[in-house]
Amino acid sequence: MRVATWNVNSLRVRLPQVLAWLAAEAPDVLALQETKVPDEAFPALEFREAGYHVVFAGEKTYNGVAIVSRLPPAEVADALPGAPDGQRRYLAATCGPLRVIDVYVPNGQAVGSDKFAYKLAWMEALAAQVRAELARHPLLVVLGDFNVAPEDRDVHDPELWRERVLASTPEREAFRALLEAGLCDVLRRITGEAGIHTWWDYRMNAYRRGMGLRIDHVLASPALCGRVRACRVDRAPREGERPSDHAPVVAEFDLAGS
DNA sequence: ATGGTTGTACGACAA
């Protein structure tokens, strides 16, 4: 079973790329973030014609998440219990054997800002929800844009990013709480390599200069972590025309016999 | 260089 996550930074702009990527990669599940489209304007028909079911939780201008799935999603939940407000950043669904939680963690803007406090509160609510979902679903994946580079090896220039938003100690502790709740970082089951990135700022030719961070993640429950076959960042869409600033992350699990 | 670019929606604001 192959699952993927991609912050598309406007589904309206990126829909042709997403459909082309689905056709080329054929994942079983694709979690999208920053769709930036209200539910009444979501392009559901285009996904159905591509052979996928889709559920979504969007709003005007900001945020927005969606789960695209070969198998029909069930037990859909579009709000994070205990979240500070109703921003559309969370979507859970059961897709065949997998419980899937798609997250768009708040960016946090700057360490110490109001938005930074909101981010930490949101992540604390997420950790509580992960504990609850883990108790009910042995095959759980939590994936999306976490807006946290967990360690220095996930940052192109650790000194430049030292204690800055996306790489600060409080954010890394909030991320580690998700792992301590029982999830593993699926990419780190495959490689300890430094310099694997999923996001590059649009400014300053950051992509061309290799100035990226690994902030998009696939986290998984213990039963899945023992069944990781592959995990990679697909940089091809980031190199194409009018790209999102994020690249997709794809993970494959061997579910035979489970 | 307190810079730069993109998306939303047409002026800031978020990222």
Note the gap between the termini: 12 Å
Q: What is the C-alpha radius of gyration, as a whole number of Å?
A: 17 Å
Largest sheet: number of strands, sense, barrel closure: 6 strands, mixed
Summing up helix and strand content along with how strands pair, one would put the structural category as alpha+beta
**Helical proportion, percent range:** 25-40%
Low-confidence stretches: none
* Mean pLDDT over all positions: 98
The CATH class is identified as Alpha Beta
- What name does CATH use for the topology? Deoxyribonuclease I, Chain A
GO molecular function, one term: double-stranded DNA 3'-5' DNA exonuclease activity
Domain Endonuclease/exonuclease/phosphatase: 4-246
Active site: 104, 145 (proton donor/acceptor), 246 (proton acceptor)
Keywords: Hydrolase, Magnesium, Manganese, Metal-binding
